[in-house]
Amino acid sequence: MAHYEPPKQSKASQLIDVVVLVVLTVGALFVPLWMGMAGAAKTVAEAVASPTWEALGQTPAQAAKYEALGYTPESAHDLILARFDYSFSVGALVAMVVVILLYYFLILRFSDVEYREVIAEKFGQK
Amino acid sequence: MMTDTDITSPVMDGMGPHGTKVGLLRVLGPAHVWALGVGIVLVGEYMGWNFAVGKGGAYAALIACWFAGILYTCVAMIDSEVTSTVAAAGGQYTQAKHIVGPLMAFNVGLYLVFAYTMLEAANAITAGYLFSVVATMTGHTGDLDQRPFIILVIMFLAWLNYRGVLATLTFNLVITAIAFVAILVLFLSTSGILGGGLMEHAALFEGHELPYGWIGVLAAMHFGLWYYLGIEGTTQAAEEVRSPARALPFGTLAGIMTLLIAATLTWYICSGVLPWEYLGDGVNGSVAPLFDTARLSGSNGLVWLLGFGTLFATLASANGCINDASRAWFAMGRDKYLPGWFGAVHPKYRTPYRSIVFLVPIALIFALGAPLDQVITFSILSGLLEYTFMPLNIIMFRKKWPLNSIKRGYEHPFHPLPALTLLTLCGITFFAVFLGYGTQLVAMIGFYIVVSLWFHFWRYRFVNRGTQFTMPWPKPQGY
Amino acid sequence: MDLWNWLEYLAWALSALFGLYMIMDWLKTDSSYSEDVLTSSREGELEAMTEEHKG
To answer: Neighbouring chains of A at 3+ CB pairs within 8 Å?
Structure first.
């Protein structure tokens, strides 16, 4: 296998590569945020009109802890009743599985091509 | 054929440079490795793990704690074997480069840098919050501007890292030990072993055993990782420990044992004192659960001890993250996976100084510009992708270089059981992340697909082919 | 102005100091050593040494 000689990279080109990476990184985090698609918020399904510890489903022992933490039934109302929504569509789940498998297939495939080249140059052809 | 090279031999310790005129300094011992691993993670017991309680209730968090413990025990075992053979800065990046291939290595390198830089940002946010709490407790009126404190934490720790690895990790050893002892003291003084106990598990769990049913247990796995995330970072020190083949497995395995103890104690203490709805809400409820438990104990001494414990844990973690992220970035620069400019070592302090400085503004962008749970999720996702890579890595490692072909400093037992267990648990965790943060998961993987294409079709042309394979191993089987 | 207002200013000042130190030292180092020396670190030194010892 012929020895591969990489080109020397100029300072300007190095700088561009760094900028590209940083932009992609910041984009991956902030784009979902800007589009308001990020995160799993908890919501209160059924509000209790005039909450007492009992109406919030708390035993006296549990209520005592909340009082020690400085809560009243009113101020603890949202904290206690808010719940996540775990319902999901099968379609979205399948889409996620496909994306993950595609990703790993892609990198393993390309990696293998590059790896064979490395081994051939390092150890010589079989 | 067994090669003659044996990096496990004691005479290999503390070797000087070869073609390298200025290289990283071999000064660390096993205790530093422990401090690096546990230091990064221990903050997870002080904040963040309790989101798992919110996801599925207290029992779900305990189940997640133990299943994540199994996941990380597999990670530590697999990592110890590979790294006791591939001892170079860059850790899993260098492993991937030798075992799976360049593009995988590039991806793994980015997982590492992101997981650690995001975690560093999360730590700085938490430290800023702590300062504002202390300000209020000491009678400050009005809102404290947290930004200067967030920036100071990152600047100070970057400066420490810049000046040398020995001081950096010795500092970590001291503050990590204090933070760990604080958890033990809190356990001893609230569980009833010393003096009156505060624990009321049965009364607090009554009626709230599994508030979401079993799907809540699955969902809790997402933040179950937070109990241990970062322990695999010990391998980044490989080029700076005196005897990597012995110190790295020892430090890593001692680290995971420490964390299993700390995680279980933390769950026990907090769930026995704080009601689950409060404990599980890390934003509006319990931001720092161990600290909140200390406040309910009524002892001023405990409040101060756990306050300092929380602060030290965040500092130790951010410190270790700067260390690890810069090593991974540096290793990629050295191989031209990233611009070669980053592969520089400071001639006096012997640290990858350009990488350290470059990552400071990146950490600041996320610490000042993004909400805490998003930053944590980004960190967890990068970690999760990395743990999914590990079983592939070890299976290929054992196949290409069977046990009798190269000498390992540590061989993990029951192969391939740990690899398959790890893969299964990663699958479950992907599902857990999907339940809450599916959009981010897809955005993140979309990002990795784009940069992978960028690397394969553009960046890889600057990389030397044969010479990037630096280990003195025989030709892999099947090639 | 209470103690914490002063601490805010102090934190800003210290941050600037640490940042300046790193930037100054970085520029100084880059100008007093050649790029070849600074980027001479190679992976696998440990392994290279053993091979050399075997001679």
So the answer is: B
